[in-house]
Automatic annotation (TrEMBL):
<dbReference type="InterPro" id="IPR029045">
    <property type="entry name" value="ClpP/crotonase-like_dom_sf"/>
</dbReference>
<dbReference type="InterPro" id="IPR018376">
    <property type="entry name" value="Enoyl-CoA_hyd/isom_CS"/>
</dbReference>
<keyword id="KW-0560">Oxidoreductase</keyword>
<dbReference type="InterPro" id="IPR036291">
    <property type="entry name" value="NAD(P)-bd_dom_sf"/>
</dbReference>
<keyword id="KW-0456">Lyase</keyword>
<dbReference type="Pfam" id="PF02737">
    <property type="entry name" value="3HCDH_N"/>
</dbReference>
<dbReference type="InterPro" id="IPR006176">
    <property type="entry name" value="3-OHacyl-CoA_DH_NAD-bd"/>
</dbReference>
<keyword id="KW-0576">Peroxisome</keyword>
<keyword id="KW-0443">Lipid metabolism</keyword>
<keyword id="KW-0520">NAD</keyword>
<keyword id="KW-0276">Fatty acid metabolism</keyword>
<dbReference type="InterPro" id="IPR001753">
    <property type="entry name" value="Enoyl-CoA_hydra/iso"/>
</dbReference>
<dbReference type="InterPro" id="IPR008927">
    <property type="entry name" value="6-PGluconate_DH-like_C_sf"/>
</dbReference>
<dbReference type="Pfam" id="PF00725">
    <property type="entry name" value="3HCDH"/>
</dbReference>
<feature type="domain" description="3-hydroxyacyl-CoA dehydrogenase C-terminal">
    <location>
        <begin position="472"/>
        <end position="566"/>
    </location>
</feature>
<comment type="similarity">
    <text>Belongs to the enoyl-CoA hydratase/isomerase family.</text>
</comment>
<feature type="domain" description="3-hydroxyacyl-CoA dehydrogenase NAD binding">
    <location>
        <begin position="291"/>
        <end position="467"/>
    </location>
</feature>
Length: 695
């Protein structure tokens, strides 16, 4: 008997308590402990077996850290089968999150009870695999094709109440899992309840699984796992149970061998590692209860909304009572959305808008704030003016934050008497929706101020990434490079439409030109004007078609016309007929003979530009680790999660080949394609970006 499962016999009931913190993942020792526990219960003449988890949860799934390694016995499907085959009545009592293999253990049991707060699901597709321990064979037998298709292909978590309605659970009861489990097992013994094996239940009638497969594949934009899981459900309906199990295992192993699985698991661990910085170990964040927001435009209102929803009180400063009223309207509108989606109650809505939110026009209202974030116009003189006022008014120890997306936070900090309290908190618009928060650490920012930034992100449910100071920090700096690469491909012969289509096929939610139209083409126009005014490097290529489009008043979706014509609606995306002639005029003026680009070359160049700049960002210490870049792109820039992020993608492609491509393109444009020193170093040393994550 291993320690991961603690055995105890209480009367007629053998209790198997999982003890594998933090989440009772089903590693080898746990699996073995379960099998041994069932055998012992049978030998010792128990009438029933109770399985439950000590600590915060029932089994939260297979041990993901074992994925990609040779599987060790006993295999999870066999453990479930062994549990189900027991002549004793097996009860699983669920609390916390019974996910993946955890739910499969419960489905292998004969009865399932849960506490009301328990959540369950089969989230395997979210990490690139599918249920591999009978989930696709037992769940459809228990609840039918439609419901199991939804549960398995979405990977979503289901609350106990819904699970009871779906028929996944037999009972929900208040109490500790051990107590409710023991009571239920005793009740079943007393009632001489039958042993109920799901595998012995009839399978549903088959449906048109080819059509389902195609529909699920299309919905996932290239994500394989949910579609392959459909084949598992098909096997349940078309094959005897034992053969269905074999088929499920084969499909599971196929997915296990994919790059998508590697990418998704990398993303899973990267987003957990991102907030764990050695510099913050043992550093306590400062007090954080009341915050101030300066500016109530889209960004300020979004930040205020997010803060209110996370339980903070907010004082928002605007220039005039009218502007303050408009800001309040924006925040209420955002909160209405949360109300409609059932995230908050009408009482909570009233409390947030009436009690937790204060609007003011005088900075004096910020004197008690623990942290103030400014979201005013993106102009250094305006920011300095705000920070000078904050310095005069805020209490000692208050954190002073700027939401700038590219300005120098050191320069902003220097205009105060307390640069150690100044930090950048770069939210993404709309701030109450987008999950990414870049925490920009300036030269003098104190460690506990950084910790407070992470604490704020945590409260708001954001994924926070530490960034250093440079133009654009991690995300916008890299974005500017790959956007430029796309612009150059247009000059050389590609069209914006081909580029968008190629990148959407790669998995981006939207191609760069569709994104430009959504965000507003005036943003990029302003940046180009600023860069030209600052003096561009003479070796950099330039073009005018994008400016001409703006000069004609086409700012994208908000004006109804950009790279696309939106007169038939935002989704229609009809190419704007004015665009190609503008591009052709640029090419003619620069004497460029346009050439053909394959979709493959478009993706390769775009990604290489992204990775090369990302390597600089890591090499310069702007991002501490490659995984920080990956998480930034995944959460702020629509990068396809199943590719893991640009650095993971680069590792999987092979860094030497990527560097060779960059060097070959550098022959035509040595300025743009200059290889990043870190990329050259890694190739020379035969190492990968992921190796740096482990250093
Ligand atoms: N295998 C191995 N480790 C796991 C794990 C798993 N299935 N699930 C969670 N962990 C680890 C996390 O990496 C983290 O480790 P760390 O503290 O060293 O960073 C720790 O357990 C706690 O997880 P965390 O996500 O930080 O806690 P949480 O309370 O926010 O969420 C879960 C808990 C279980 C909901 C979440 O971790 C989760 O969704 N896990 C994956 C579940 C899954 O996909 N199961 C199916 C696998 S087949």
């Amino acid at each position: 008997m291993t320690e991961a499962i603690v055995y105890e016999k209480i009367g007629d009931i053998a209790v198997l308590a999982a003890n594998n913190p933090p989440v009772n993942a089903l590693g080898q020792a746990v699996r073995q402990g379960l099998v041994e526990g069932i055998e012992r219960a049978e030998k010792e003449g128990a009438k029933a077996v109770l399985i439950y988890g000590e600590g915060r949860t029932f089994f939260a799934g297979a041990d993901i850290r074992e994925f990609g390694k040779a599987p060790t016995e006993p295999f999870l499907p066999d453990v479930c089968t062994r549990i189900e085959a027991s002549p004793l009545i097996v009860v699983s009592a669920l609390h916390g999150t019974a996910l993946g293999g955890g739910l499969e253990i419960a489905l292998g049991s004969h009865y399932r009870i849960a506490v009301p707060k328990a959540r369950m699901g089969l989230p395997e597709v979210l990490i690139g695999v599918m249920p591999g321990a009978g989930g696709t064979q037992r769940l459809p037998r228990l609840i039918g094709i439609d419901k199991s298709l939804d549960v398995i292909t979405s990977g979503r978590q289901i609350g106990a109440k819904e699970a009871l309605e779906l028929g996944i659970l037999d009972k929900v009861a208040e109490g500790e899992p051990r107590e409710i489990g023991l009571a239920y097992a005793q009740e079943l013994i007393d009632a001489a309840a039958p042993r109920r094996a799901i595998s012995e239940m009839p399978a549903p009638e088959p449906v048109d699984f080819d059509a389902l497969y195609d529909a699920v594949l299309k919905k996932g934009r290239g994500l394989l796992a949910p579609a392959v899981a459909v084949r598992g459900i098909q096997a349940c309906c078309e094959l005897p149970f034992a053969e269905g199990m074999k088929r499920e295992r084969e499909l599971f192993m196929e997915l296990m061998a994919t790059d998508q699985r590697q990418g998704l698991i990398h993303a899973f661990f990267a987003e957990r590692a991102v907030g764990k910085l050695p510099e913050l170990k043992d550093v306590e964040p400062r007090q954080l209860a009341a915050i101030g927001v300066i500016g109530g435009g889209t960004m300020g209102a979004g930040i205020a909304t997010s803060a209110l929803l996370s339980g903070l009180t907010v004082t928002l400063i605007e220039m005039s009572p009218e502007a303050a009223e408009a800001a309040k309207g924006r925040i209420s509108g955002n909160l209405q959305g949360a109300l409609k989606r059932g995230k908050i109650s009408p009482e909570k809505f009233a409390e947030l808008t009436e009690k937790a939110l204060t609007l003011a026009t005088d900075y004096a209202a910020l004197k008690d704030a623990d942290l103030v974030i400014e979201a005013v116009f993106e102009e250094m003189s305006v920011k300095k003016d705000v920070f000078t006022k904050l310095d005069a008014i805020c209490k000692p120890g208050a954190v002073l934050a700027s939401n700038t997306s590219y300005l120098d936070v050191n320069e902003i900090a220097a205009c105060t008497s307390r640069p150690e309290d100044v930090i950048g908190l770069h939210f993404f618009s709309p701030a109450h929706v987008m999950k990414l928060l870049e925490i920009v650490v300036a030269d003098k920012t104190a460690a506990d101020v950084v910790a407070t930034g992470f604490a704020l992100g945590g409260k708001m449910g954001k994924v926070s990434v530490r960034a250093g100071v440079c133009d654009g920090f991690i995300g916008n700096r890299i974005l500017s490079k790959y956007r430029t690469c796309a612009d150059y491909m247009i000059l050389d012969g590609a069209s914006p439409y081909q580029i968008d289509a190629a990148l959407e096929a790669f998995g981006f939610a939207m191609g760069p030109y569709a994104v430009g139209d959504l965000a507003g083409l005036d943003i990029g126009w302003a940046v180009r004007k600023r860069k030209r005014a600052e003096g561009m490097d003479p070796r950099a290529r330039d073009f005018t078609y994008a400016d001409k489009l703006c000069e004609d008043g086409h700012f994208g979706q908000k004006t109804g016309m950009g790279y696309y014509d939106y007169s038939a609606g935002a989704k229609a995306r009809v190419p704007n007929p004015e665009v190609m002639p503008l591009i052709e005029a640029d090419r003619a003026a620069q004497g460029i003979t346009p050439r053909e680009f394959t979709d493959e070359e478009i993706v390769r160049r775009y990604m290489a530009a992204m990775v090369n700049e990302a390597a600089r960002v890591v090499g310069e210490g702007i991002a501490k680790r490659p995984l920080d870049v990956d998480v930034t792109l995944l959460y702020g820039y629509g990068f396809p999660r199943y590719r893991g992020g640009p650095m993971k993608w680069a590792d999987m492609q092979g860094l030497p080949g990527l560097l060779a491509d960059i060097k070959s393109w550098a022959q035509d444009d040595p300025y743009f394609w200059e290889p990043a020193p870190l990329l050259e170093k890694l190739v020379a040393e035969g190492r990968s970006f992921d190796d740096l994550n482990k250093d």
